[in-house]
Design a protein that fits this description.
This protein has 7 helices and no strands. Helix 3 packs across helix 5. The two termini are 14 Å apart. Helix content is 59%, strand content 0%. It has 2 domains: 57 residues; 115 residues, no CATH class. With 176 residues, it is mainly alpha-helical.
């Protein structure tokens, strides 16, 4: 019986660690830009980021980038930029995120803080950089609001909980 408990415990830990590691992976495959460089050793010089993002601009073309810039400007104006960036990740890879990144490294988009700020070495950051104040929840279409229960961490905790309950149930049955 003791070995059975260890196997169950090890299984829960293994599944949880695998799912959490996947959730925090920085370099994910990008359907929108398969040759996307992996920006995982932060920070970078602004010129090296611009060089990388110029490849993206060349691949997509001026007309497409200007169309996406208009979408992004609308999202900024209507305080749904974070939603717009995540919306592009649903079906087309990281299209909206890549567009934002291009205009961000050229100082044509406000800073979202966090990862994007840490991308650029401090000496290259614009001290007068505009910061995005955050999305206004009411402006996000309700049918497409992000469901917090879809996160991999939440799923790993739910799976671990279900396995633990199953373990307790099986243990009680075996005692009878």
């Amino acid at each position: 019986m003791l070995n059975f408990e260890r196997v169950i415990l090890f299984s829960i830990l293994f599944v949880s660690i695998f799912v959490v590691n996947t959730a925090f992976a920085i370099c994910l495959s990008d359907k929108d830009w398969p040759e996307n460089p992996c920006f995982d050793n932060l920070p970078y010089s602004k010129s090296s980021l611009q060089s990388s993002m110029d490849q993206y601009y060349s691949m997509k073309g001026q007309e497409w980038m200007e169309m996406k810039k208009a979408e992004m400007d609308y999202a900024i104006e209507n305080r749904i930029l974070e939603y717009w960036i995540s919306k592009g990740d649903e079906s087309k890879g990281f299209a909206n995120s890549n567009v934002y990144m291009y205009y961000f490294v050229y100082d044509e988009a406000p800073s979202l803080g966090g990862y994007y700020n840490r991308l650029i070495i401090e000496e290259d950051r614009d001290p007068d950089m505009e910061f995005y104040p955050g999305d206004i929840e009411e402006n996000i279409p309700p049918a497409r609001a992000i469901n917090p229960y879809q996160g991999p961490i939440i799923w790993s905790l739910l799976i671990a909980g279900i396995v633990a309950i199953g373990f307790i149930f099986v243990k009680k049955l075996m005692r009878k």
